[in-house]
Amino acid sequence: MNDPDFTLSAGPVTASARTLAALGSPITYHYDPAFLECFRRTERKVARVLQTSADVVLMQGEAVLGLEAAARALVRPGTPVLNLVSGVFGKGMGYWLSDFGADLHEIEVAYNDAVGATEVERFLRSHPEIEVVAVVHSETPSGTLNPVAEIGPIARAHGALTLVDCVSSVGGIPFKADEWQLDVCVAGPQKCLGGPPGMSLMSVSEGAWARIGANPAAPRASFLSLLDWKEQWLEGGTFPFTPSVSDVHGVEAACDQLLEEGLESSIERHELSARACRAGIRAMGLELWPRTEEITAACVTAVTVPDGLTDVQVRSHVRERYGVMISGGQGAGNLVRIGHMGPTARGLHPVVGVAALGRALTDLGVQAEIGAGVEAALEVLAREAAPVA
Ligand SMILES: *Cc1c(COP(=O)(O)O)cnc(C)c1O
Question: C or N: which end of the chain has fewer Cβ atoms within 10 Å?
Protein backbone atom coordinates (compact mmCIF):
# COMPACT_ATOMS: atom_id res chain seq x y z
CA MET A 1 0.00 0.00 0.00
CA ASN A 2 1.14 3.56 -0.65
CA ASP A 3 1.90 5.99 2.16
CA PRO A 4 -1.07 8.15 3.15
CA ASP A 5 -1.53 11.62 1.66
CA PHE A 6 -2.30 13.00 5.12
CA THR A 7 -1.40 11.62 8.53
CA LEU A 8 -3.97 13.11 10.89
CA SER A 9 -3.46 10.50 13.57
CA ALA A 10 -3.14 10.72 17.34
CA GLY A 11 0.62 10.16 17.07
CA PRO A 12 3.15 9.47 15.81
CA VAL A 13 2.34 12.45 13.62
CA THR A 14 3.93 13.86 10.49
CA ALA A 15 7.43 15.08 11.30
CA SER A 16 8.71 18.34 9.84
CA ALA A 17 11.28 18.40 7.06
CA ARG A 18 13.75 19.78 9.60
CA THR A 19 13.22 16.87 11.96
CA LEU A 20 13.55 14.38 9.12
CA ALA A 21 16.77 16.02 7.97
CA ALA A 22 18.18 15.91 11.51
CA LEU A 23 17.31 12.22 11.78
CA GLY A 24 19.64 11.77 8.82
CA SER A 25 22.60 13.30 10.66
CA PRO A 26 25.76 11.19 10.78
CA ILE A 27 25.68 8.51 13.44
CA THR A 28 28.62 9.21 15.69
CA TYR A 29 30.19 7.51 18.66
CA HIS A 30 28.11 8.50 21.67
CA TYR A 31 31.20 9.89 23.45
CA ASP A 32 32.17 11.97 20.46
CA PRO A 33 32.40 15.52 21.85
CA ALA A 34 29.98 16.77 19.20
CA PHE A 35 27.35 14.26 20.30
CA LEU A 36 27.94 14.99 23.99
CA GLU A 37 27.30 18.67 23.26
CA CYS A 38 24.19 17.80 21.28
CA PHE A 39 22.87 15.64 24.12
CA ARG A 40 23.43 18.37 26.72
CA ARG A 41 21.86 21.00 24.46
CA THR A 42 18.85 18.79 23.91
CA GLU A 43 18.37 18.36 27.66
CA ARG A 44 18.33 22.13 28.11
CA LYS A 45 15.88 22.59 25.25
CA VAL A 46 13.56 19.94 26.66
CA ALA A 47 13.71 21.76 30.02
CA ARG A 48 12.55 24.94 28.29
CA VAL A 49 9.74 23.06 26.56
CA LEU A 50 8.62 21.52 29.87
CA GLN A 51 9.06 24.93 31.57
CA THR A 52 11.26 23.58 34.31
CA SER A 53 14.57 24.22 36.02
CA ALA A 54 14.57 20.66 37.38
CA ASP A 55 16.78 17.87 36.04
CA VAL A 56 15.84 16.52 32.65
CA VAL A 57 16.33 12.85 31.85
CA LEU A 58 16.13 11.71 28.25
CA MET A 59 15.27 8.04 28.42
CA GLN A 60 15.95 6.02 25.31
CA GLY A 61 12.62 4.46 24.56
CA GLU A 62 9.07 5.43 23.63
CA ALA A 63 7.25 7.36 26.38
CA VAL A 64 5.76 4.20 27.86
CA LEU A 65 9.30 3.39 29.03
CA GLY A 66 9.52 6.69 30.89
CA LEU A 67 6.10 6.20 32.45
CA GLU A 68 6.92 2.71 33.69
CA ALA A 69 10.34 3.84 34.91
CA ALA A 70 8.77 6.72 36.84
CA ALA A 71 6.12 4.51 38.43
CA ARG A 72 8.70 1.91 39.48
CA ALA A 73 11.00 4.59 40.88
CA LEU A 74 8.34 6.29 42.99
CA VAL A 75 6.56 3.35 44.60
CA ARG A 76 7.53 0.42 46.77
CA PRO A 77 5.31 -2.29 48.17
CA GLY A 78 2.69 -0.62 50.35
CA THR A 79 3.09 2.97 49.06
CA PRO A 80 -0.33 4.67 49.23
CA VAL A 81 -0.97 6.16 45.78
CA LEU A 82 -3.89 8.07 44.31
CA ASN A 83 -4.27 7.36 40.61
CA LEU A 84 -6.66 9.49 38.55
CA VAL A 85 -8.42 7.57 35.80
CA SER A 86 -10.32 9.22 32.99
CA GLY A 87 -9.20 6.97 30.19
CA VAL A 88 -6.95 4.26 28.85
CA PHE A 89 -3.58 5.69 29.89
CA GLY A 90 -4.74 6.48 33.44
CA LYS A 91 -6.14 2.98 33.75
CA GLY A 92 -2.88 1.46 32.50
CA MET A 93 -0.88 3.44 35.05
CA GLY A 94 -3.07 1.89 37.77
CA TYR A 95 -2.27 -1.66 36.55
CA TRP A 96 1.44 -0.87 36.78
CA LEU A 97 1.17 0.75 40.20
CA SER A 98 -0.62 -2.24 41.67
CA ASP A 99 1.84 -4.63 39.98
CA PHE A 100 4.66 -2.77 41.74
CA GLY A 101 2.89 -3.25 45.06
CA ALA A 102 1.33 0.17 45.60
CA ASP A 103 -1.63 0.51 47.93
CA LEU A 104 -3.75 1.79 45.05
CA HIS A 105 -6.60 4.26 45.39
CA GLU A 106 -8.34 5.55 42.29
CA ILE A 107 -10.75 8.27 41.35
CA GLU A 108 -12.26 6.96 38.16
CA VAL A 109 -14.68 8.80 35.86
CA ALA A 110 -16.26 7.81 32.54
CA TYR A 111 -13.83 7.83 29.62
CA ASN A 112 -15.54 10.88 28.09
CA ASP A 113 -15.07 12.92 31.25
CA ALA A 114 -12.28 14.54 33.30
CA VAL A 115 -11.34 14.25 36.98
CA GLY A 116 -12.26 17.41 38.91
CA ALA A 117 -9.64 19.13 41.05
CA THR A 118 -12.14 19.48 43.92
CA GLU A 119 -12.64 15.70 43.99
CA VAL A 120 -8.89 15.26 44.23
CA GLU A 121 -8.67 17.78 47.05
CA ARG A 122 -11.55 16.13 48.93
CA PHE A 123 -10.03 12.68 48.49
CA LEU A 124 -6.61 13.76 49.74
CA ARG A 125 -8.16 15.45 52.75
CA SER A 126 -9.83 12.19 53.77
CA HIS A 127 -6.70 10.14 52.91
CA PRO A 128 -3.75 11.91 54.53
CA GLU A 129 -1.55 8.85 53.93
CA ILE A 130 -1.37 9.35 50.13
CA GLU A 131 2.27 9.88 49.05
CA VAL A 132 2.01 9.93 45.24
CA VAL A 133 -0.66 11.26 42.86
CA ALA A 134 -0.58 9.99 39.27
CA VAL A 135 -2.42 11.87 36.56
CA VAL A 136 -2.62 12.00 32.77
CA HIS A 137 -2.79 15.55 31.44
CA SER A 138 -4.17 14.97 27.95
CA GLU A 139 -5.94 11.56 27.85
CA THR A 140 -5.32 11.19 24.12
CA PRO A 141 -7.57 8.16 23.40
CA SER A 142 -10.56 10.16 24.71
CA GLY A 143 -9.54 13.63 23.48
CA THR A 144 -9.96 15.00 27.01
CA LEU A 145 -7.91 17.09 29.42
CA ASN A 146 -7.46 16.78 33.20
CA PRO A 147 -6.88 19.99 35.23
CA VAL A 148 -3.22 19.34 36.07
CA ALA A 149 -2.58 23.06 36.68
CA GLU A 150 -4.89 22.79 39.70
CA ILE A 151 -4.06 19.24 40.76
CA GLY A 152 -0.29 19.90 41.02
CA PRO A 153 -0.51 22.54 43.77
CA ILE A 154 -3.18 20.51 45.62
CA ALA A 155 -0.91 17.45 45.71
CA ARG A 156 2.12 19.54 46.72
CA ALA A 157 0.19 21.19 49.57
CA HIS A 158 -0.79 17.71 50.73
CA GLY A 159 2.84 16.62 50.70
CA ALA A 160 2.38 14.11 47.85
CA LEU A 161 4.57 13.86 44.75
CA THR A 162 2.99 13.97 41.30
CA LEU A 163 3.65 11.64 38.39
CA VAL A 164 2.34 13.32 35.26
CA ASP A 165 1.80 11.81 31.82
CA CYS A 166 2.05 14.87 29.58
CA VAL A 167 3.01 12.85 26.51
CA SER A 168 0.47 14.37 24.15
CA SER A 169 0.02 17.81 25.68
CA VAL A 170 3.51 19.29 25.68
CA GLY A 171 4.00 21.74 22.82
CA GLY A 172 0.30 22.01 21.95
CA ILE A 173 -1.45 22.67 25.25
CA PRO A 174 -0.17 24.94 28.05
CA PHE A 175 2.07 22.88 30.34
CA LYS A 176 4.26 24.35 33.09
CA ALA A 177 6.06 21.79 35.20
CA ASP A 178 7.51 24.21 37.78
CA GLU A 179 4.66 26.70 38.02
CA TRP A 180 2.20 23.83 38.43
CA GLN A 181 4.46 22.26 41.09
CA LEU A 182 4.83 18.92 39.30
CA ASP A 183 7.44 16.34 40.26
CA VAL A 184 7.97 13.72 37.58
CA CYS A 185 6.74 14.63 34.10
CA VAL A 186 6.93 12.37 31.07
CA ALA A 187 6.53 13.82 27.57
CA GLY A 188 6.89 12.27 24.13
CA PRO A 189 8.44 13.76 21.01
CA GLN A 190 6.00 12.15 18.55
CA LYS A 191 2.89 14.14 19.45
CA CYS A 192 2.65 17.95 19.49
CA LEU A 193 6.43 18.34 19.10
CA GLY A 194 6.25 16.65 15.69
CA GLY A 195 9.38 14.63 16.49
CA PRO A 196 10.29 10.97 16.09
CA PRO A 197 8.77 8.26 18.29
CA GLY A 198 11.34 6.51 20.44
CA MET A 199 12.24 8.69 23.42
CA SER A 200 10.88 9.70 26.81
CA LEU A 201 11.45 13.35 27.71
CA MET A 202 11.30 13.59 31.48
CA SER A 203 11.74 16.07 34.29
CA VAL A 204 12.43 15.03 37.87
CA SER A 205 12.10 17.45 40.80
CA GLU A 206 14.47 17.46 43.77
CA GLY A 207 11.74 16.08 45.97
CA ALA A 208 11.20 13.22 43.55
CA TRP A 209 14.94 12.44 43.44
CA ALA A 210 15.03 12.32 47.22
CA ARG A 211 12.17 9.85 47.29
CA ILE A 212 13.60 7.73 44.47
CA GLY A 213 17.05 7.63 46.07
CA ALA A 214 15.51 6.43 49.33
CA ASN A 215 13.36 3.78 47.65
CA PRO A 216 14.95 0.31 47.87
CA ALA A 217 12.51 -0.88 45.18
CA ALA A 218 13.58 1.75 42.63
CA PRO A 219 15.29 0.00 39.70
CA ARG A 220 19.10 0.06 39.65
CA ALA A 221 21.39 -1.32 36.95
CA SER A 222 18.34 -1.58 34.70
CA PHE A 223 17.09 -0.16 31.42
CA LEU A 224 14.21 1.20 33.54
CA SER A 225 16.45 2.96 36.03
CA LEU A 226 16.14 6.70 36.54
CA LEU A 227 18.80 6.44 39.24
CA ASP A 228 21.34 5.07 36.75
CA TRP A 229 20.75 8.14 34.61
CA LYS A 230 21.16 10.44 37.60
CA GLU A 231 24.22 8.81 39.11
CA GLN A 232 26.05 7.81 35.94
CA TRP A 233 25.07 10.50 33.46
CA LEU A 234 23.84 13.63 35.28
CA GLU A 235 26.45 13.35 38.02
CA GLY A 236 29.15 11.24 36.40
CA GLY A 237 29.10 12.14 32.70
CA THR A 238 28.94 8.48 31.65
CA PHE A 239 25.95 7.09 29.79
CA PRO A 240 24.35 4.02 31.41
CA PHE A 241 24.12 2.59 27.87
CA THR A 242 24.31 3.87 24.30
CA PRO A 243 21.72 6.56 23.61
CA SER A 244 19.57 6.47 20.46
CA VAL A 245 21.87 8.82 18.58
CA SER A 246 19.58 9.52 15.61
CA ASP A 247 16.51 10.07 17.77
CA VAL A 248 18.39 12.59 19.90
CA HIS A 249 19.17 14.61 16.76
CA GLY A 250 15.52 14.41 15.76
CA VAL A 251 14.33 15.54 19.19
CA GLU A 252 16.75 18.45 19.19
CA ALA A 253 15.47 19.62 15.81
CA ALA A 254 11.85 19.29 16.93
CA CYS A 255 12.62 21.35 20.06
CA ASP A 256 14.50 23.97 18.02
CA GLN A 257 11.56 24.38 15.72
CA LEU A 258 9.13 24.72 18.59
CA LEU A 259 11.30 27.15 20.57
CA GLU A 260 11.96 29.31 17.50
CA GLU A 261 8.25 29.45 16.77
CA GLY A 262 7.57 30.13 20.45
CA LEU A 263 5.59 27.92 22.80
CA GLU A 264 2.69 30.34 22.86
CA SER A 265 2.34 30.51 19.09
CA SER A 266 2.48 26.76 18.87
CA ILE A 267 -0.24 26.42 21.49
CA GLU A 268 -2.42 29.02 19.73
CA ARG A 269 -2.03 27.10 16.48
CA HIS A 270 -3.10 23.82 18.13
CA GLU A 271 -6.09 25.50 19.77
CA LEU A 272 -7.19 27.10 16.53
CA SER A 273 -6.97 23.80 14.62
CA ALA A 274 -8.94 22.11 17.38
CA ARG A 275 -11.66 24.80 17.32
CA ALA A 276 -11.94 24.54 13.53
CA CYS A 277 -12.12 20.75 13.71
CA ARG A 278 -14.75 20.70 16.46
CA ALA A 279 -16.87 23.29 14.63
CA GLY A 280 -16.71 21.17 11.47
CA ILE A 281 -17.67 17.98 13.28
CA ARG A 282 -20.65 19.57 14.99
CA ALA A 283 -21.86 21.29 11.82
CA MET A 284 -21.82 17.91 10.05
CA GLY A 285 -24.34 16.74 12.63
CA LEU A 286 -21.86 14.49 14.46
CA GLU A 287 -21.21 14.28 18.16
CA LEU A 288 -17.98 15.08 19.95
CA TRP A 289 -16.88 12.30 22.30
CA PRO A 290 -15.89 14.47 25.31
CA ARG A 291 -18.82 15.22 27.60
CA THR A 292 -18.31 19.00 27.40
CA GLU A 293 -16.37 21.40 25.23
CA GLU A 294 -14.44 22.69 28.29
CA ILE A 295 -12.62 19.38 28.78
CA THR A 296 -11.59 18.84 25.16
CA ALA A 297 -7.85 18.59 24.52
CA ALA A 298 -6.39 20.67 21.69
CA CYS A 299 -4.27 17.84 20.28
CA VAL A 300 -6.99 15.54 18.92
CA THR A 301 -10.70 15.84 18.18
CA ALA A 302 -12.53 12.71 19.33
CA VAL A 303 -15.77 12.00 17.52
CA THR A 304 -18.44 9.49 18.55
CA VAL A 305 -18.92 6.86 15.84
CA PRO A 306 -22.60 6.70 14.84
CA ASP A 307 -24.55 3.58 15.83
CA GLY A 308 -24.13 0.62 13.53
CA LEU A 309 -20.49 1.38 12.64
CA THR A 310 -17.20 0.67 14.42
CA ASP A 311 -14.16 2.86 14.83
CA VAL A 312 -11.99 0.38 12.94
CA GLN A 313 -14.42 0.30 10.01
CA VAL A 314 -14.53 4.09 9.76
CA ARG A 315 -10.79 4.57 10.22
CA SER A 316 -10.00 1.93 7.58
CA HIS A 317 -12.43 3.42 5.08
CA VAL A 318 -11.01 6.93 5.51
CA ARG A 319 -7.51 5.58 4.92
CA GLU A 320 -8.21 3.13 2.11
CA ARG A 321 -10.67 5.27 0.14
CA TYR A 322 -9.28 8.76 0.77
CA GLY A 323 -5.65 8.31 1.82
CA VAL A 324 -6.10 10.04 5.17
CA MET A 325 -4.89 8.29 8.31
CA ILE A 326 -6.98 9.05 11.39
CA SER A 327 -7.03 7.14 14.69
CA GLY A 328 -9.55 4.85 16.36
CA GLY A 329 -10.52 4.89 20.02
CA GLN A 330 -7.63 2.73 21.29
CA GLY A 331 -10.00 1.03 23.72
CA ALA A 332 -11.58 4.22 25.11
CA GLY A 333 -14.85 3.66 23.26
CA ASN A 334 -16.46 3.65 19.82
CA LEU A 335 -14.85 6.83 18.59
CA VAL A 336 -12.45 8.07 15.96
CA ARG A 337 -9.91 10.83 16.38
CA ILE A 338 -8.67 13.48 14.02
CA GLY A 339 -5.23 14.53 15.20
CA HIS A 340 -4.00 18.09 14.92
CA MET A 341 -0.54 17.96 16.38
CA GLY A 342 2.82 19.40 15.39
CA PRO A 343 2.98 20.12 11.67
CA THR A 344 -0.68 19.10 11.16
CA ALA A 345 -2.02 21.67 13.64
CA ARG A 346 -1.84 24.21 10.88
CA GLY A 347 -3.65 25.55 7.81
CA LEU A 348 -6.32 23.44 6.17
CA HIS A 349 -5.39 20.13 7.83
CA PRO A 350 -8.49 20.13 10.05
CA VAL A 351 -10.67 20.78 7.01
CA VAL A 352 -9.17 17.73 5.30
CA GLY A 353 -9.92 15.66 8.39
CA VAL A 354 -13.51 16.86 8.60
CA ALA A 355 -14.17 16.32 4.89
CA ALA A 356 -12.59 12.86 4.80
CA LEU A 357 -14.48 11.68 7.87
CA GLY A 358 -17.77 13.13 6.65
CA ARG A 359 -17.47 11.53 3.24
CA ALA A 360 -16.44 8.18 4.68
CA LEU A 361 -19.46 8.12 6.98
CA THR A 362 -21.72 9.01 4.07
CA ASP A 363 -20.18 6.17 2.02
CA LEU A 364 -20.88 3.85 4.95
CA GLY A 365 -24.55 4.84 5.06
CA VAL A 366 -24.62 7.57 7.71
CA GLN A 367 -25.81 10.97 6.54
CA ALA A 368 -23.27 13.70 7.33
CA GLU A 369 -23.67 17.36 6.32
CA ILE A 370 -20.24 17.50 4.69
CA GLY A 371 -20.67 20.93 3.08
CA ALA A 372 -21.84 22.49 6.31
CA GLY A 373 -18.94 20.88 8.18
CA VAL A 374 -16.32 22.13 5.75
CA GLU A 375 -17.84 25.61 5.79
CA ALA A 376 -17.94 25.75 9.57
CA ALA A 377 -14.30 24.70 9.87
CA LEU A 378 -13.26 27.21 7.20
CA GLU A 379 -15.29 29.92 8.89
CA VAL A 380 -13.28 29.50 12.10
CA LEU A 381 -10.02 29.63 10.17
CA ALA A 382 -11.08 32.62 8.06
CA ARG A 383 -12.12 34.54 11.15
CA GLU A 384 -9.24 33.65 13.45
CA ALA A 385 -6.17 32.43 11.57
CA ALA A 386 -3.27 34.78 11.03
CA PRO A 387 -2.26 35.28 7.39
CA VAL A 388 0.04 32.49 6.21
CA ALA A 389 2.76 34.59 4.65
C1 LIG B 1 1.04 8.54 23.02
C2 LIG B 1 0.83 8.49 24.45
C3 LIG B 1 1.63 7.68 25.26
C4 LIG B 1 2.67 6.78 24.68
O5 LIG B 1 2.01 5.61 24.38
P6 LIG B 1 2.01 4.83 23.00
O7 LIG B 1 0.72 4.05 23.04
O8 LIG B 1 3.18 3.96 22.98
O9 LIG B 1 2.03 5.84 21.89
C10 LIG B 1 1.43 7.73 26.63
N11 LIG B 1 0.48 8.53 27.19
C12 LIG B 1 -0.31 9.32 26.43
C13 LIG B 1 -1.33 10.19 27.09
C14 LIG B 1 -0.16 9.33 25.04
O15 LIG B 1 -0.91 10.11 24.28
Answer: C
Residue nearest to atom 12 of ligand 1 (CA): 167
Ligand 1 pocket member 188 (CB < 6 A): yes
Question: Residue 109 pLDDT > 90, yes or no?
Answer: yes
Nearest atom (ligand 1) to Cα of 140: 15
Indicate if 256 and 267 belong to the same structural domain. Answer: no
Query: For ligand 1, is residue 142 a contact (CB within 6 Å)?
Result: no
Q: How far is the CA of 53 from the centre of ligand 1 (A)?
A: 24
Same domain, 173 and 271: no
Q: What's the predicted TM-score (pTM) here?
A: 0.98
Q: In this structure, which amino acid lies at residue 118?
A: T
Q: Domain total for the chain? A: 2
pLDDT for the residue 389? 66
Which CATH number characterizes residue 274's domain? 3.90.1150.10
pLDDT for the residue 387: 80
64 lines ligand 1 (CB under 6 A): yes
Residue range(s) defining the domain that contains residue 62:
17-260
- Name the domain boundary from 260, 279, 305: 260
CA distance 323 to 38: 37
Query: Does the Cβ of 11 fall within 6 Å of ligand 1?
Result: yes
The string of pLDDT tens digits covering residues 22-77 is 999 999 999 999 999 999 999 999 999 999 999 999 999 999 999 999 999 999 99
- Residues 176 and 36 placed together within one structural domain of the fold: yes
The closest alpha carbon to 81, from 156, 153, 134, 157, belongs to 134
Residue located nearest, by CA, to atom 11 of ligand 1? 167
Residues 282 and 221 in one domain: no
Cβ of residue 168 lying under 6 Å from some atom of ligand 1: yes
